Amino acid sequence: MKLINYKSVAPTHFNNEAAKEVAGRVVAGKADGANNFCMRIFEIAPSGFTPKHSHSWEHEIFVHAGTGEVYGNGKWNPIEKGNVIFMPPDEEHQIRNTGKELLLFACLIPSTAPEL
Fold first, then answer.
1. What is the pTM of this model?
2. What is the DSSP pairing of strand 12-14 with strand 103-110?
3. Which residues contact 48 (CB under 8 A, 6 or more apart)?
4. Kindly report the CA angle at 38 between 21 and 72, in degrees rounded to 5?
5. 70-83: string of b/e by CB count within 10 Å (b at 16+)?
C-alpha cells in the first residue's frame, strides 16, 4: 500500500505556448507497481491551461477544487468542484482555469500511456 499527501511528490511544471501554469504529479504509477492505471494530480493556476490534444487512450478526471472549462465534443463546457469528466479515446480536449482559485483535478490513464 502507498499512502501519501499528493504535495509530497515533486511536480513537473509546464509553462510554454502549449500549456500555461500547469503542475502535474504522478502519485501512483509504474514506479509504484501500478500495472493497470496511472493516477496523476494536476494543478492549473488562474488563466492557465493544458495543451489542446488527442490520443488513443481515455481519461477519467475528477475535479477536486476550482472552476474552469473543458474542451470536448467540439465545444467548451464549464467545470467545477465535484465534476467528473470521461474523455474517450481520440477526442480533442483541453482544460483551462477560468476562475480566481487553483483548479485541481485527479486524472486516471491506462498504464500503457506516458505518465506525464
1. 0.96
2. unpaired
3. 19, 20, 21, 22, 96, 97, 103
4. 55
5. bbbeeeeeebeeeb
> Which triple of cell numbers denotes residue 85?
469528466
Amino acid type, 95: I
Give pLDDT tens digits along the chain (116 positions): 999 999 999 999 999 999 999 999 999 999 999 999 999 999 999 999 999 999 999 999 999 999 999 999 999 999 999 999 999 999 999 999 999 999 999 999 999 999 99
Domain 12-100: homologous superfamily in CATH: Jelly Rolls (2.60.120.10)
CA distances, 32 to each of 9, 11, 14, 36, 112 (Å): 13, 17, 23, 11, 14
Cell numbers standing for residue 32: 509504484
Report yes or no: 40 and 113 within 8 Å, Cβ to Cβ.
no
Give the largest Cα separation in the chain, rounded. Answer: 40
Q: Is 89 exposed, middle or buried (0-12, 13-18, 19+ CB in 10 A)?
A: exposed
| Domain regions of the chain by residue span | 12-100
